[in-house]
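--- STAGE predict ---
source: upstream dedup step, 1 unique chain passed
mode: sequence only
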Amino acid sequence: MAGGRLMALFRFDAGYRGDPHEHTDAEFGYILDGEPVCNGVPMTAGCARGGTATTHEEFRTDADATILSVFQIP
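--- STAGE serialize ---
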């Protein structure tokens, strides 16, 4: 944890469906394995995604997935 940010490793089981949630500050994610779908956009291993504050209306994965994420501590 540095500067109010947290780095976390998330492992999602096949069939995971996340509840809608909002990031009020920029978030960065790097897909280590799997093929999660975020807001209708499929992502694959090696994909990096970052940007400004966002709302995740949809986050799901049909297969196991691992993501490294950096975000503002809620």
